[in-house]
Amino acid sequence: MTDKTDQLIKNIAFSTAVDIVGLVDYEEGRVVSRTLSSKPYVNITLFAFDKDEEISAHTSPGDAMVQVLDGEALINIDGKKIKATTGQVVVMPANVPHSVRASSQFKMLLTVVKQAVGIGGL
Fold this sequence. Notes:
Distance between the termini: 32 Å
Structural class: mainly beta
Number of strands: 9
């Protein structure tokens, strides 16, 4: 077994099937999150939004992929509005303003992939 300090993924059981939708619960008037990985090159976060809750417009240094696990959301990418529902995926490009608003109670898995930067910018 790997030492917990060496794990790249956290806050989820290893070596077993997990109901990912059940790892975050809806809370009235809130956006709830659970970080599964936070590394220099990738972030993976599970979210549960109450109806009409949102993450306001912002940019990300990496491409961000929303996987809709439950419900429906309106995703705005630089003024383009996209309705996303359970089972769909939307990719938001790096450095482009975007926001996410829950049309109903809504759960998503967000994966942000960033450019790896090493010595000499490689």
